[in-house]
Amino acid sequence: MNAKVWLVGAGPGDPELLTLKAVRALGQAAVVMIDDLVNPAILQHCPDARVIAVGKRGGCRSTPQAFIQRLMLRHARQGRCVVRLKGGDPCIFGRGGEEACWLQARGIEVEVVNGITAGLAGATQCGIPLTLRGISRGVTLVTAHTQDDSPLNWQALAASATTLVIYMGVARLADIQQQLLAAGMPGSTPVAMIENASLPGQRACRSPLYQLLQRAAEFELKSPAVLVIGEVVNAAGALELQPQALDGVALDLVFAQPGTPLALLAQ
Amino acid sequence: MNAKVWLVGAGPGDPELLTLKAVRALGQAAVVMIDDLVNPAILQHCPDARVIAVGKRGGCRSTPQAFIQRLMLRHARQGRCVVRLKGGDPCIFGRGGEEACWLQARGIEVEVVNGITAGLAGATQCGIPLTLRGISRGVTLVTAHTQDDSPLNWQALAASATTLVIYMGVARLADIQQQLLAAGMPGSTPVAMIENASLPGQRACRSPLYQLLQRAAEFELKSPAVLVIGEVVNAAGALELQPQALDGVALDLVFAQPGTPLALLAQ
Q: Do residue B128 and residue B239 come from a single domain?
């Protein structure tokens, strides 16, 4: 195989949400570098590749970004086909843009393969359409992670009339709630908190914005999770988790009252 | 096979951007209802299914939404497994939420399969990361289509500091430009216009916002196209189309000046 780096979106977790192109890239890989949040089940598509874990997770021991980049470069320069597997999509909060640019500047061929992003998959599994005619004409994906130093205008996000999907927000719930309320978003705005989007262990809980902290604490919300904020969360039909996604756990939450946790009640 | 309706995202056009789950759904389908914008190459995964074209396109003869829904219902009630193939993702401007709700209210089992949305794939093929640390901490997807009667707050969209991706905007370029400029977005803001995202016929062109109409006219921009608006369009490395996506057409646009059309120069 030719030397090349593929930056591949592994999707949100469900191994079936991988694209055919990602499968093809994995089949060609001599080296696969895999992030923490990627479901290892996906490695079934590269049984002969050397797999290197290069996870990064807030607060834990992690692999420095510069080291990951140099490692990709070294393997590619040695003539190997490298796949870097990233959770979700490589260019939605995945640093794919930075890595592609850095490698290309060093003469390495790079190809990016899109993946399904966790916010989309999580919402879908909860029966929440991110856009809905007459309710929401768009969707905004943002990260609450503060190592990113680009600005966020909460006032504009609250006023945008788009569904808001917030990644990496679990540690910053108080700030998110306070900023959105201060920006004029009604306290009654429904929020879905979705943990482990699309995985068998997916859990989801709904709350009005003004009760966000209390509900999250009761629910024991943990990372990784996405927040979906907007009227689509309460839209007719939007409250039924897709039962087949949850490994046989039967769910029927269509008639849940607003504010009722959508947690997996059956065990 | 059991009666069921799958609402399946066919992705942006490139048949390799289909998910494994979509392939599985197609393999089970007795009836496949396919939208206009879906690449028919995807039908290779359902050689034995009955295929029904139910396209809708602005300005052309089209299949009424109510008819499509009744058709899905009829086939499902006759015990058939139905796949409704939609361009991109079913719940991002795809009416998936409405259709799922309508069918579920009539006792039909529905499963939604996510797809890669055209705005994401088009940007990736042009080397544009939708988010980029220090430049853009989020991305907003909106439709310019006006049959959707939910509000859009252009002022908020311009102020959000997220990358803006506009679907179905070709017929409304003048309005989009005027609204964003009136909302205070700098005229120098770079815009990428991407036609036929991810398909061999993909074409892309870049313009500062203030020259949008003129450049689009010179480029002869046609539907379907997405607009990507924000500084990521000019980010280092963001201007190189992924050559492998374009069926052997060699492209090297890394050194293009801002404002230079990114059109396929080679034929």
A: yes
